[in-house]
Amino acid sequence: MNKLLSIMLTLLLLGTAVSLRAETIKITELVVTTKISKRNPIDAVHRISHRSVKALYCFTRTLQDDAADTSIKHVWLRDGQVVKEIDLPVKGRRWRAYSALSVNASSRGNWRVEVRDEAGTVIKAVEFKVH
Question: Which of 16, 22, 36, 123 is the most exposed place for a label (fewest CB within 10 A)?
């Protein structure tokens, strides 16, 4: 009985530690854009034709409680299927990062980009459609 209680307490503490770390990085801006200019997105895409662009970018602005180096991951999904995963470093209290996706006729569909922390937890997501 004591061993079971000890295991449960350990699991509870581990779960709390993971959730506390996940809360220390916040996404203050998340957009899919057609271009990054001067380290900022120029627009926000919600619906776009595959004929109008050659690439799309997912721009993420983060804020951390401390300046510890960490990373996030952009997971690009089309119609619920993972198409691309990109690990991005976060090296400061305030940080900007982006990833790119080539666009062509085979890119049509409903898209979602998930931002995940180091533990794989989805912090925030953005959705758009390519037609």
Answer: 16
19 Cβ neighbours under 8 A, 6+ residues apart: none
102 φ, ψ (degrees, to nearest 5):
-70, 140
The total number of structural domains in the chain stands at 1
Q: For 28-62, how does the pLDDT look when each residue is reduced to its tens digit (9 = 90+)?
A: 999 999 999 999 999 999 999 999 999 999 999 99
Q: Which residue segment(s) compose the domain that 81 sits in? A: 25-130
Q: What is the pLDDT of residues 64-93, one digit of tens each?
A: 988 788 999 999 999 999 999 999 999 999
Concatenating the DSSP letter of every residue in 101-117 gives: EE--GGG-EEEEEEEE-
Q: Is the pLDDT of residue 103 over 80?
A: yes
For residues 103, 104, 107 and 111, what is the CA-based torsion angle, rounded to 10 degrees? 30
Report helix, strand or coil for 120.
coil
Which CATH number belongs to the domain containing residue 118 in this structure? 2.60.40.10
CA gyration radius, the chain: 18
